[in-house]
Amino acid sequence: MAKRVTLAEVAAQAGVSPITVSRALRRPDTVQPDTRARIDAAVAALGYVPDPAARALATGRADVIGVLIPSATNAVFTDVLTGLYDELSETRFDLQYGITRYEPATEEKLLGVFLRQRPAGLIVAGIDQTPAARRLLERADCPVVQVMETGPDPVDMMVGFSHHDAAAAATRHLIAQGYRNPGFLGARMDPRTQRRFAGFRAEAEAGGVFDPERCETTPVPSSVGGGAALLRALMTRRPETDAVFCNNDDLAMGALFEAMRMGFPVPERLGICGFNDLEMMHAAEPALTSVRTNRFEMGVRAARMIRARLDGRDPGPALIDLKPQVQARRSTGGPS
Amino acid sequence: MAKRVTLAEVAAQAGVSPITVSRALRRPDTVQPDTRARIDAAVAALGYVPDPAARALATGRADVIGVLIPSATNAVFTDVLTGLYDELSETRFDLQYGITRYEPATEEKLLGVFLRQRPAGLIVAGIDQTPAARRLLERADCPVVQVMETGPDPVDMMVGFSHHDAAAAATRHLIAQGYRNPGFLGARMDPRTQRRFAGFRAEAEAGGVFDPERCETTPVPSSVGGGAALLRALMTRRPETDAVFCNNDDLAMGALFEAMRMGFPVPERLGICGFNDLEMMHAAEPALTSVRTNRFEMGVRAARMIRARLDGRDPGPALIDLKPQVQARRSTGGPS
DNA sequence: TCATCTAATGATAGCGCTGTCATCGTAGCC
DNA sequence: GGCTACGATGACAGCGCTATCATTAGATGA
Fold this sequence. Notes:
The structure is a homodimer of 336-residue chains.
Chain A: H1 7-14, H2 18-26, H3 33-46, H4 52-59, E1 64-69, H5 75-88, E2 94-99, H6 104-115, E3 121-125, H7 131-139, E4 144-147, E5 157-160, H8 163-176, E6 182-187, H9 191-206, E7 215-218, H10 224-237, E8 243-246, H11 249-262, E9 271-273, H12 280-283, E10 290-292, H13 295-310, E11 319-321, E12 325-327
Parallel strand pairs in A: 1-2, 1-3, 3-4, 4-5, 5-11, 6-7, 6-8, 8-9
Antiparallel strand pairs in A: 10-12
Chain A binds a DNA duplex (30 and 30 nucleotides) through helix 2 and helix 4.
C-alpha cells in the first residue's frame, strides 16, 4: 500500500505551514504566486492527494452529491445519471446513488443515510416523497433538486416535465390520426404512471373516446413480454380497440410484437404509441411513435443548478420544465 | 437542519463514557447487556446516527465499496449493479460508482479517486486494466473483485465467464442448426467484444464456415438502429449470409427489424443470435436466440466474496465461472 | 485470605484537515 | 515620520470518532 502523504509533509517540503498549503489548494488566489509554485511542486513531488474524510470532518460537509432513483436498470433513470455524471465528473464532487425500488419507505431510509454524510447536494427522482422524507429534504441544508417531473410545490429546485400533459399530448396525437377507440397499457402503476394515465384519460374523455374497459394495467414492473401480454388481454376483451397508448417503450415494443403474432397490421389495424422514446423506437419495423423525454438534459441541468448554488452563482429559475415532444412515426400513421 | 447528535451526548444520556457507546454500537457483545440497553435507549431517544467521515478518519478506512463500470446505461452493467446493491443494501457498506466510459485512462483516474478514500473493497469490470491501474489494484489493501469476465491472472478475486467460449457456444449452435454462411455483427469493439469475436471466429473456422467478409463491425457504441444498419450493410455486400451472431442483444433486435424491412424471413432465410439474453429477446416475434449471461448473479457473488473477506470468513474459491447458456429460440430455427 | 486472571469500562491521544483569530510586514496617506 | 489598512501567513484548537493502553471490579484457585 502506497503510504499516505499528509498536508503536513507537503508543508514541510515547501517550507510553509500546513494551513498555507490547505489554502493554496482550495483558494489559490489567496497565496503569493511564488509560494503557490513551491507548494504545487511539493504536491507533485510527493504525490499528495487530500483525504476526503478528514476534509469532511473538518468542514462538516462532504463533497458528495446524493442521488436517489427508483431503479438502476430502468433506462429512464440511467440516462439522467449519465447527464449528472457528465456534468460533475470533472468537479470535486462525487456522486453517490441510492436505489429506492419505488418504495417510499426505502427512499426515506436512504435519505437518512445520505444526510448523515452532510452531502453537498441532493437529487431525488419525482415528487412523491413521504411527509417525513419531505421534511428531511426541507431541513437538509444543501441544494435539493427534484428531477423527472414538475409539480406545484418544489422542495427547492425542480427539473422535469408534466407527465399528465405529456400523456395528454400523445393521446391528442392518436385522436388526430383518426383512431377512435384508443386503449391504455400500463405496468407497475407508480405515481408517475398514474399521472400519465390521468393525462390519457382526460384527453380521451375530452375527445369523447374514453372507455375504462380499454385500459389494461398490471402492478408488475414493465417489460417487453409484459407489454405483449397486456395487449393480448386487451385485444381479446375489447377487439374494437384500434390504438394503444403504452405507458412506456418496453410495453410498446411488446405490443408491437404481439400485434404481429395476432396478425394485426400496425398502424392500420392498431396504432401504437410509447413513452420516453428510447433509441430502439425509431429502429423498429414499423418505427414506433413515442414521447421524447429529455432525460440526459434533465441530469445535466440538475447538476448545473446544484453547482451554481454551491459556487454562489445564480442557479437560474428554480423550476425548469423540459417539455417532451411527441415523435410521430409510422406506428401511428392512422387506421386504414 | 436537525442538530447533529454526537457520541458524547449519547454517552452523557446513558451515563457511560463515549468509548463505551462506540463499542456498544460496533461490537455489542463486548458490553454488559444492561449497559447496552441503556445505550440503545439513549441512541433511540436522541436519534443518534454515526458520522461516517469521523469514523473513516479515525479508523483510516471508509465503509465504501467502489465499483468501476464502463457505462451506466448499458443494461449488462446495471444488472450487475442491481445484484451488488441487493446483497449490500442491508449492510453498513455504501456503494460508490465510477463510470469509465470504456476508457482505460478514465478507469485509472477513478481508481485513484476511490483509493484515496481507503475503500473497504473494490469491484472493477473486466480484466483489461492499464498496467498502472493493475498495480494500483494490487497494492490496494482491500479485497478486489474483477467481474464480467474470467481470465488467467486475477488481481485478487474474479466472478465472470469466458466471452470467447460463450461466443463459440453460440456459433456452434448456429452451425448445428444448419446455417452454413454465418456472419458476425459487432459494435464498439471493446476488449470483451473482441474476445467474443475471437470465439466466433475460432468456432466458425473449426466448422469450415468462416469468412472475414461476413464480419461487419463498427467502433460506434451498439444500438438497435446500429444493428439494423450493420445487417443491411452485411446483406448487401454478402447476400449469401444465412445467419448472424450479434455481439449483443441490441444489435440482434436491430437485425431482426432490418430483416423484416428487407423481406428476409427469420429464421428461414436468416438466423439471428444475440448475446446477454435481455428480457426483450424472448418476447420478440420471432423470439430471439441469445446467450444468457448471469449478470445479476455476478453482482451478488462479487458482493458476497467481499463481505466474506471483510468479515474474516472464508470467501470460497477466488475464481467463479458463471458459465452462460445458449437460449435457443425460434430465430435460429434453421434455414428452410 | 491473597495473588492472579478476566471481563467491563474508562482516559488519553490523535486521525488529517480547516475555521478563527493573531501576527507580521509593507504600502499608502496626511 | 507616524499612522492606518490590508494582504500574506501562521498558531491553535477542534471536527466526531476509535486505537491503545490503563484501570477497576469481580471471579477463580491455592
